[in-house]
Amino acid sequence: MATTANDHTLSLHSGHGPKGGPGAGATNVNDGERVMSAIGGGLLALYGARQRGVTGALLALTGAALVKRGVTGHCEVYGALGMNTAEASGGGLLEKKHGRAAVLDASKAIKVERSVTVAVPAAELYRFWRNFENLPRIMNHLESVTVLDDKRSHWEAKAPAGQSVEWDAEIIREEPNRLIGWRSVNEATVPNAGSVHFHESPDGRGTTVRVVLEYQPPGGRLGQLVAKLFGEEPEMQVREDLRRFKSMMETGEVPNSRSASGSAVRNALQPQEARL
Q1: Which residues belong to any copy of the Coenzyme Q-binding protein COQ10 START domain (predicted)?
Q2: What angle do CA 41, 44, 45 make, to 5 degrees?
């Protein structure tokens, strides 16, 4: 895949200090990306300001957010995913071991973030998710996920007209029972990254599961298929996936989809199956 001036390699941050730290406001966007965000955001804000109604206001706000991203060098999405483009050289060892991180063009990437509260302990939810081979049971667009080793996996997603989209991914950040972060590697057709967070719910009656995804649909005919795959409302699709996840973990059944008995769910949670 050719890399252009607008492409940015996402790398796992391994340093310390204010530049790449995980704290709020830490710089995690490289210089080239900051310039593009500032210029593109300024143009978008100007265009939105000239429009009328809600659409113009939303465009202006989006442009302002991009300008802020360029000026501050901080991206909330990258922060949530534990990624850093400001220190791309830090991924050298990771690239040698697992392959080069797939390139995400920040100006074209789509971000999705949704959450749900599940009446199940975080450890059980984490154990289910940690084995990515379980995910096709709750995500309708996934055909299969094959675990390759303790960090890497191969994903295949369904697309219209009998097409499919495949990519390899690696785990780049992990906190047992709290967080799993992953990203696509090598020349992925659909560069993407994601993370899932597990926290005790405010009322103490369950676990709040928050999913953050970012992906870049390709261009051309395949891009059209991917657009159909993810739908016009990607947040709605993720919301439905989380609804199925909640139902499966709480009742053992998946609504309006493939179902599984309670024993099947318990089997999926056994440590020997949590290979990833």
Answers
A1: 118-242
A2: 85
pLDDT one-digit tens code per residue, 122-136: 999 999 999 999 999
Q: Where does residue 201 rank: exposed (0-12), middle (13-18), buried (19+ CB within 10 A)?
A: middle
Nearest of 210, 201, 176, 185 to residue 81 by alpha carbon: 210
The H or E element that residue 49 is part of is: helix 31-50
Q: Where are the beta strands (DSSP E) in the chain?
A: 8-9, 11-12, 83-84, 103-104, 110-118, 142-147, 152-158, 164-175, 179-185, 192-200, 207-215
Residues 90 and 181 placed together within one structural domain of the fold:
no
Task: Please report, for residues 40, 63, 76, 217, the alpha-carbon distance to residue 72 in angstroms, rounded to integers and kept in the order given.
Answer: 15, 14, 11, 27
Single-letter amino acid, residue 7: D
| Domain extent for 148 | 110-273
d(CA 125, CA 119) in angstroms, rounded, equals 10
Whole-model pTM: value is 0.56
The pairing of strands 110-118 and 142-147 is: unpaired
Q: Does residue 227 surpass a pLDDT of 70?
A: no
On average, the pLDDT of the chain sits at: 73
Query: How far, in Å, CA of 224 to CA of 155, rounded?
Result: 20
**Single-letter residue type at 10:** L
Considering its fold, how many domains does the chain have in total? 2
